[in-house]
Amino acid sequence: MATEDVKLIGSWASVYVMRARIALHLKSISYEFLQETYGSKSELLLKSNPVHKKMPVLIHADKPVCESNIIVHYIDEAWNSSGPSILPSHPYDRAIARFWAAYIDDQWFISVRSILTAQGDEEKKAAIAQVEERTKLLEKAFNDCSQGKPFFNGDHIGYLDIALGSFLGWWRVVELDANHKFLDETKTPSLVKWAERFCDDPAVKPIMPEITKLAEFARKLFPKPQA
Amino acid sequence: MADEVILLDYWPSMFGMRTKIALAEKGVKYEYKETDPWVKTPLLIEMNPIHKKIPVLIHNGKPICESLIQLEYIDEVWSDAYTILPSDPFQKSQARFWADFIDKKFYDPSWKVWATMGEELVAAKKELLEHFKTLETELGDKPYYGGEVFGYVDIALMGYYSWFKAMEKFGEFSIETEFPKLTTWTKRCLERESVVKALADSDRIIEYVHVMRKKFGAE
């Protein structure tokens, strides 16, 4: 197989970068991981993503692809003959996977993030309640999509597993911060087992960040107001 | 067995217009059901329980929600006719990027420019013009966003066309003056029957905007 020129601009802590990395690992693609320094944006990032100026950016043979879910689609399509398929094969299943991936980014993550940025107990309580409600929907989505199999995508991890699973490190950090378990054996039994399987997957395990390291980084990103 | 295709949509929705264009381009016959999203009918709740919004495409009883997802679905299911998305993975990723940009960035100021007042309106107008400029630059001298063929990004943006007159009126700017390439592109897209039939009348949209402005307290 010819060596491909693949670079990924990102950071070890970013959920969105993780999605791209998992997809690349699933397809056994070698790539150069160009890590950004926290607090600044490299020339290459600004040049490759002039519209949003954000990571991740996949650069394949000098051509940049931006936005994590678009990158995952691209990896699946550009390397469609290597490794397992990341998107489901049936158009309806693909539509469902895309729907939930969009829900995770547009609705679910917004409420998770608001726990970390909440000012005061009332705001925090409201944010926690919203995350509980939205996570319940994801539990049902898992049961509907997986149809008894280990992953959203069936027998092996796929697009929707990656979309949600990439959040697992941060999810744990938020649980510690809120002192509240969202992934719970009684409330979300399917997601609890799925999370373990996901984190154990060989495409995921080497790159899932350590929780303590992530928690320390979170304290930098979301400083608590001074007493 | 013949396909049963139903579209739950509301006449002013820029998102529904995209889906109507795509279905027409593919020659798909469907039943249109006018659905006011402010009135949560049992059918709407059943078909889109998460968001309770339109458009909802129902294919043989199974719902597909979110207009861009519907476009990809329509392209994948009715795949022997003309294609909406390019086949090359990189070109496809660029098409998805720009459609995503339209929804992520362009959408918000596009309604704030008629729904807000004062400082919020000033900020919305500035942002809207910036995004129009970005879209003008990206189009360049190409006939369509994807190049020679009318496609995904064109459909994604033309869905908003009926609202352009309202944006111009309340934002106090002229697309023709400020964005000549976009103007030429809109005229080219308006030569397509699929587009003309899908779009709402711009003046009717302005009347609708006046009603909405009263609701938001902007007049």
UniProtKB/TrEMBL annotation, chain A:
Reactions performed catalytically: RX + glutathione = an S-substituted glutathione + a halide anion + H(+)
GO cellular component terms, semicolon-separated: cytosol
Matching Pfam families: GST_C, GST_N
Biological process according to GO: glutathione metabolic process; toxin catabolic process
Location within or outside the cell: Cytoplasm, Cytosol
Annotated GST C-terminal domain residues: 90-221
Residue intervals passing through the bilayer: none
Domain GST N-terminal: 4-83
GO molecular function: glutathione transferase activity
Principal place of residence: cytoplasm
Superkingdom in the source lineage: Eukaryota
Keywords for this protein: Cytoplasm, Detoxification, Transferase
Enzyme nomenclature, EC number: 2.5.1.18
Family: Belongs to the GST superfamily. Tau family.
Name listed for the protein in its UniProt record: glutathione transferase
Automatic annotation (TrEMBL), chain B:
Domain GST C-terminal: 88-209
Major localisation: cytoplasm
CDD domains, alphabetized: GST_C_Tau (cd03185), GST_N_Tau (cd03058)
Class of the enzyme per the UniProt entry, highest EC level: transferase
Span of domain GST N-terminal: 3-82
Localization, UniProt: Cytoplasm, Cytosol
Keyword terms: Cytoplasm, Detoxification, Transferase
Family: Belongs to the GST superfamily. Tau family.
Known role: Is involved in the conjugation of reduced glutathione to a wide number of exogenous and endogenous hydrophobic electrophiles.
Identification of the protein by name: Glutathione S-transferase
Species of origin: Arabidopsis suecica (Swedish thale-cress)
